[in-house]
Every structure is written in C-alpha cells, then in structure tokens.
Design a protein that fits this description.
three-stranded mixed sheet, 2 domains
C-alpha cells in the first residue's frame, strides 16, 4: 500500500481540526507526524531527565563541552545543536572506554581471539591510511569480521547484564543515544523510514518511564 508521511510542527497537533495527535491519518494514505527535529528534542529531554542528576551535568560542564549557562537548555532538550553534539561526544567517550576494557580482557582470553582482533585492526589501519571505497569493501569482506563483531557484542551484553548496576545504567545511555538520537539522525539523512520507525519504537517506552 502506498503511504506518505507529512512532518507537522507540534503546535498544529494541538488543533482540534484534522490533527488529533502524532501519527493521525489526515487523508487516504497520508499520515501527519512530528518532524525529526522535534522528535530528537524530545529524545534529548528524555536523556536529560534520566541521566541529568547522575553526573551528566558535571561531565558536560567540567569537560567544557557545554557552558555553565547553557546546561539547563541542553538537559531540557531545548538546545538542539549543542545537545546533540554533547551526547555524541559522551557516547564516543564511553564507547572508547568500553573498547579499552575489551582489549584489556582480550589479553587473558583465547589466543585465537587475540589473533583475530589484531588481524582485523591491522586492516582497519590500512583503511584509515587509504580511504577508498575498495578498501572499505575489502574490510567488510574480512573473514574475521563476524568473529570480532560477535565478541564485541558479547562484551557489551556482559556490561549490560552481568558486570555491575553502574555499567548497566550507563550502557542504557549508550543504547539510547545510539538507537534513538543517532538512529533518527541517520534515518533522516538517508531517508530510511524503517530505521525511523525502529528508533521511535525504542523511544516510546522511555516517554513513560
């Protein structure tokens, strides 16, 4: 079935005529939805509410990512550009810490696992020194890539489920930024409606948490 979505500013959703809320059908095959910008602002506000009093404000201010006078707007989801940038930085910092621990644990694991990861990282370095489509395609066809990805996912699940409550808490932050904020951004830029819906599905439970 052919289907078309129309992005509508939030104020119009409060009108009594035609628009009854997010996703309301306003014509045959046409649905009105809040645009990606406002949806991400909601996601930023959810992140601020869940993590704001858990050290997030201090991290942003002390790392000089966000100015002291702007932190309230970032936490409330009102400063879009600054908020997205700040959460991207923190997401990458946490992922780098996780990767460092993953590599440390790898030293005492199966030697075959170390060889596989070392081989994969060598090919990543080759790609970094020669950024071409052919090099990237070669990397994706690397025979050890599935093994490395499996080990990385298993380590992330360990942090979520069996390491500690603190790591589980901050892994939920990583999952929210990656799955919701970055997912919505990518879906908007690539025109990927399925990814957009996936990110929205991830966000909905947090709206009522």
């Amino acid at each position: 079935m052919w289907f078309q979505k129309i992005s509508i500013p939030p104020p119009f959703h409060r009108r009594e005529w035609k628009f009854q809320g997010v996703g309301s059908v306003i014509g045959p095959g046409i649905s009105g939805v809040i645009g990606t910008f406002h949806t991400i602002c909601v996601a930023l506000a959810i992140l601020g509410k869940r993590f704001g009093d858990s050290g997030l404000k201090d991290i942003f201010i002390e790392s000089q990512i966000v100015a002291d006078g702007s932190i309230s707007g970032v936490i409330d989801g009102k400063h879009y550009n600054c908020g997205v940038r700040a959460h991207k930085y923190l997401y990458e910092a946490l992922m780098r810490l996780a990767w460092a621990e993953f590599m440390r644990r790898l030293q005492s694991s199966n030697p075959n696992h170390r060889i596989a990861v070392t081989s994969f990282l060598e090919q990543v370095d080759t790609l970094a020194n020669n950024l071409k489509g052919e090099s990237f395609g070669h990397l994706l066809k690397c025979p050890v890539l599935p093994q490395v990805m499996t080990m990385w996912r298993e380590f992330q699940n360990h942090l979520r489920e069996s390491n500690s409550e603190l790591s589980a808490f901050w892994m939920s932050y990583v999952d929210m930024v990656e799955g919701i904020v970055l997912g919505l951004l990518r879906a908007s830029r690539e025109g990927d409606w399925d990814l957009h819906l996936h990110s929205i599905r991830m966000m909905i439970p947090w709206c009522f948490a």
